[in-house]
Write a structure and sequence with these properties.
Order of helices and strands of chain A: EEEEEEEEEEEE
Radius of gyration of chain B: 13 Å
Number of strands of chain A: 12
Strand content of chain B: over 45%
Oligomer: heterodimer
Largest sheet of chain A: 6 strands, mixed
Distance between the termini of chain A: 41 Å
Shape of chain B: globular
Structural class of chain B: mainly beta
Number of helices of chain B: 0
Largest sheet of chain B: 7 strands, mixed
Order of helices and strands of chain B: EEEEEEEEEEE
Chain lengths: 116, 114
Amino acid sequence: AQSVSQHNHHVILSEAASLELGCNYSYGGTVNLFWYVQYPGQHLQLLLKYFSGDPLVKGIKGFEAEFIKSKFSFNLRKPSVQWSDTAEYFCAVNARYGGATNKLIFGTGTLLAVQP
Amino acid sequence: DAGITQSPRYKITETGRQVTLMCHQTWSHSYMFWYRQDLGHGLRLIYYSAAADITDKGEVPDGYVVSRSKTENFPLTLESATRSQTSVYFCASSLTSGLYNEQFFGPGTRLTVL
């Protein structure tokens, strides 16, 4: 079965530190990859997505992610985090489900706390 | 542009009661989804719908019922609530079902079953 693994469940950083959140998926077919962010008390918002082409994807708020097909990974990065980046981050893979509908499979999330 | 709205935002109920969570989208998206979010599990798909009157089970459908008589609405009903259904419920929609589908999420409903 398809699955998504996020190895870091809870990350604490100081402002200006660099961030890398790991995401690995298990699915041998064509995949589309997403990172969603959930700020405290809010709904999930799309941070960035990879469909095809350049494996280095740039998203909103200075985030980027690199798709490495050989490693089945889609790690999220940001060179310098801010207090406002405190949120929960979810990696998701779009995979076929039920034969006709694609669905998102989510990782368990990484809670990022940025200390001022 | 209202997007996706969910109601109520917060609900406390008792074991055994029936509860309905509402989801409404204004984009005329074909696909709608219900997820529950629990610590350590991320988001898990409960039910989804490809169009009006077409619904199907997701990963964790037991204890839930859905309907979709109109494209814009996708209510989720807990027929007899249990404590294990205490969770945050998110509704989502997408224009298509293809590999390129991007899902848009509502604000969530926090449900507590006592």
